[in-house]
Structure prediction request, 200 residues.
Amino acid sequence: MKEPHNRESLETLPVDIFGFIFHPASTRYVGNLEKEMIDQLVATTKKKAGVFVNAQLETISTIQKQFGLTHAQLHGDESPKFCLQAGALGLQIIKVFRIKSISDLSYINEYEGTADYYLFDTLSIQPGGTGKKFDWSILDGYRHKTPFFLSGGIGPDDAKTILKIDHPALFGLDLNSGFEIRPGLKDPEKLSCFIDQLLP
Prediction:
């Protein structure tokens, strides 16, 4: 989320968490907005996740207080120890892993018990989303108990495919570029139609 009026238009949708990106290289970066806009942007009853890439713990703590964050999505090379330290700030931790093959699931072992959720996204050289899917069947090999968000190229036409995914640890979906009018501006109609297909 980047624009207050857009945030307001999504308030009535059954979305649990709004995301705010604090990686300066991203076109969705909100850290340079004026205070008045920031105040309007975060004036929501939804849970709020800050997206960080190799940020300092002090930076996350400061932004947590400023924005009233409930979650931190760690999209960089953060260690298991760092995940625990960020969680000690009172945040729910979502650790991101980039997936291309089943071997990419192997190094998750050391993170068990250090994050509240994982998020599986498509492998890319640079941090951030690619707008492309990875082979979701790879997740059949995920056997840990930590619940995960599915991400990576999810679009309005994927509802039927997602409904066929039968994995006990699938917790939620991370929806971004496939539902945007432009970076940071979501399309309420697309989101509403998509969610209606998923919910009974």
In short: The chain has a mean pLDDT of 93.
